[in-house]
Write a structure and sequence with these properties.
The protein is α+β, with helices and mostly antiparallel strands. It contains 2 helices and 7 strands; from the N terminus they run E-E-E-E-H-E-E-E-H. The chain has a single domain, classed as Phosphorylase Kinase, domain 1, CATH 3.30.200.
Length: 111
Amino acid sequence: MAIPQIVAESQISIFKFYKNGVIHEAILVNNQILRLAGVFEIDDKQTALKFAYKLCREYPTLVTPSPFIYRVWVDVRCQEKFAVGMPLPALSDDVVSQLEGAGSPETPVET
């Protein structure tokens, strides 16, 4: 049976990445990218660990305890949606077409 790793939060570096209109938090551990799957209050240790054990059945999972919260991280290939990302507002079609055309040889960029 797989068990989630537990690493002190002070031992990791968090970075952000963008995917499907959402900014996610992630970490790099042992050459694997793990994204944030859940944040739990310090009094909710059992819930955090149960959540981590559920995820680690299929994906590498890590728990980072800090003095105030537990964070659960899961392999970035996990397709489950978690309510911890920061959704960005949808861009208008005008803005998208401007971004897509910016810098291409066919479309001059206004300065």
